[in-house]
User: Fold this.
Amino acid sequence: MKQDERAPFVQALRRARMSAYPPGEFVEQESFMLAREIRALAGQAGIAPGVSVLDLCCGVAGPGRFITRELGCTYLGVDFSSSAIDIARESAGDLPCRFEVSRIPPIPPGPFEVVLLFETMLAFPEKETLLQEISGALTIGGRFAFTMEEGLPLTESERERMPDADTVWLTPLHEMLTCLERVGLVVRWQEDRSRSHRAVADSLTEAFAADATDIAAQIGRRALEELLAAHRLWSEWLREGRVRKIAFVAEKTETPRAKSRTSQRRAATIGTVCLSRVP
Assistant:
């Protein structure tokens, strides 16, 4: 069973997910993020009442609905999974949320004041193509808030170990900073969340294993085994430093065409400084 058929997974994993997160930290996210991290990232991005927000790869939109409920923004969530969007629409109730089913890219043209991309940057092999579209959809001064899995590309042996490896495209930090700069986005804030995400990965693994019989009955033994294998790998790689989880807010300061070669050289130098300051 593929996770594009979202309803069985949401139902099968819900009890384990609710037990795995600390009290108050589960908001129907399908990731390692905690509710307080989602709220903090939204705050750093300047989301507030009336701010227009585009949430890419929103899935069932647990974080998006949480942000809309907490901060009162104008929200559009987009995902390629029609079953995930069906769940998002039903769960949104009276919240001022809209949803669209669409492959990404392309993305809605906007303009938007904030674009979100939580926990799915690694699914895009061509990062710069996506970032160009995001930049084009933002207003000048708009913010792009996202998380990324930072590291060198997977080796062949690592790809053999990782289920659905065709959706895992790691990126070194310096390459991401360069891509952002090329499309007119300047990093204003960043935070390493590797330790907390490893703890969540471990907790989810334990919860899924404890509820294995019930979960397997709903999604199948193979899907459960792949889920457990992926979570154990992420925990291992985060523990060893093979991968880092980093959250960012980048601001659109100008259109890429307006940038001179001098400003690009200056930005490259700043990017190197930012890289050296990351713990």
Remarks:
- The beta strands are 52-56, 74-79, 97-101, 112-117, 138-150, 185-192, 244-252.
